[in-house]
Structure formats: structure tokens, C-alpha cells
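Known limitations

C-alpha cells in this collection are predictions and should be treated as such. Users comparing against experimental data should check residue numbering before alignment. To illustrate the layout, the record for Methyltransferase type 11 domain-containing protein is reproduced below. The input appears on top and the generated C-alpha cells appear beneath it.
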Amino acid sequence: MPMTVVPGRFTPAILSIGSPLPSFKYAARGVAVFVPRSAASISVETNSSVDSVVEKEKDILACPICYNSLALISKPNGLVGSAASGTQLQCNTCKKSYSGNETHLDLAVASGSNQYTEPMPLSTEIFRTPLVSFLYERGWRQNFIWGGFPGPEKEFEMAKDYLKPVFGGNIIDASCGSGMFSRLFARSELFSRVVALDYSENMLKQCYDFLNQEENLTNKEKVVLVRADIARLPFLSGSVDAVHAGAALHCWPSPSSAVAEISRVLRPGGVFVATTFIYDGPFSFIPFLKNLRQELMRYSGSHIFLSERELEDLCKAGGLVGFTRVRNGLFIMLSATKPSR
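Generated C-alpha cells:
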């Protein structure tokens, strides 16, 4: 996909009303510009009264309800460069609307609800708090070294070995947290687009701030911040080249639903890479461990994996093949792929 690198900040987009949603690119003055995946060009309008016809292009973003494409239906008054908190996207099929704010696009199913709220399990809700979101990259994640996690830079190098077949494509950094891996993926220049995805609004705010503080990240235009549910991904089926999930699998309310969604959005040959904790070996001798696991999962929503075979079965159940892994103590990095046609 041809690209023109224009450094800038991260703000949701402004385009002509009624146009299908093309691919993300970021331009100067804090404005997101959308660029189609093909070589065909799209003009970005600077006057809010303009309603130009834009060539339809298939993009990766989709409605999380019906999985069909989105179109821009409204934008704030004023020229390009104005605040984008009024930007709205609408599904071409079910007509559900989604909005963008200063830091991210909100593509969760319940986004925009005024009265309805839907609390998630504790293992999800804790990362939505401002305190944990602030601390995550300021000591919280660093403690994972005691579980055998090599550290973000080393984990990134390990993940690259699995991701080589999809270099040059797009990658979803699922449950991105404060964006430490999103920044590493963007800085590597190995991917055409990096989508930093999380359910936590506060984590995405931290991700936004860290991205804008990165002086050595010259290709910020490749990064898109999206709020979404891991079990209801807002991407078209078969449109994603790779999904990465660092230290997240054990926090997902339903790992099987999440892996099935990841399999749905991956193109044939697409790669899934994840890291988590695994409690096997001497832990297998702990009496009633399986029963204890069920109680922990019931009250916290956090999952405890007890064997490599369990994780392999999880990938197979979600439609992924070629399971492989690397171990270091409680740490495991696993990879599986979407079967090629």
C-alpha cells in the first residue's frame, strides 16, 4: 500500500459526509486523514459543507454488531483541524452510530448508550481505573519479570520471529494497555498500520499520551487507537494480517470467544501471537487446583491456564492451526495461524 509519511498527533478523523470509511493515515495539525488501501486516491475535504462522492474502498474497520462497513455521517463544524469529538460513523447496514473523541474511536457495542451500563469482570474493570492505567507502564508490567516474562523489548524480538510472514501488513495490538508494544510495532516500521485496541478508556488515554511523547517515533501516522471488546472486534472478516496480545489472554472474560473473533478477522495465513502465564509443572501437584481455578474465574474473571495442551486446544477451537510456543518459567509465548485457502 503506497504511503506518504506526514508526522503529526493522534486525533480521530474528519471526512466528507456519507463516504465509506477508508484506511487510516495521520496528517499534520492533529488531523487524521483516511487513505484507501488501493492505489486509488481520495480527496480530503476542508469545508464542512462539502458533500463529495468518495470511491468505495474496502477497509478493515466494521460495525461490531453486524460486521459490515462503516461510513462517516457527521463531523464538527469548521475546517479540517477542528476538534473531532463530534465525528460520527454509521454502519451501512444496521445504522448504528459510533463516535470518536480526542484520543480514540469508540467502537464498542454499547458505545453511545446514555442509560445502559455493562460492568465487566474484575479482571477487566481493574484496568479501566485511572490509577492502574497510570501505573501499568510505571511499575506494574515490570513486575512480570518474576513470572519469567523477558521484558517488552525481548518479547517484541521473540514475537517478530512469528510475525515474519506478515511483515508489511497491518497488525492489531489487542488489549494494548498503555501501548508499549504498539509503539514498538510502529517504531519497527515492519507494518503498514498498527491498531492499538483496548476496552479501557483510561488505558487508551495513557497510550495516546505515550505516543505523543515519543520523539523517536517518526511514523505516528501509522497508529490508530480504537476502543473495542475483544470478543466483538470491529473489523471486517479476513481483513487483518496479524493480531498480537501481550500478557492479556488470562484477563479476557472468554478466551474462546476472543480467539474465535481473532480467527474471524485474520486473513488466510494471518498470524496470532500472544503471551500469558501458565501454571503447570510443580503446580500440577497442588490439590484441588482445578476446582480452585473455577472459583477464581467465577469471581475475578481471570483465567488460569494449567497446560500447553489447554492453550493448543483453545487455538484449535477458535479455528487456528500450527500451534507453537516458547517457554520461560511461568511465561509462555504462543503462536497460531489462520489456515490458508
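For this record: The two ends are 23 Å apart (CA to CA). Residues 117-338 form a domain with the Rossmann fold fold (CATH 3.40.50.150). Please report discrepancies through the issue tracker.
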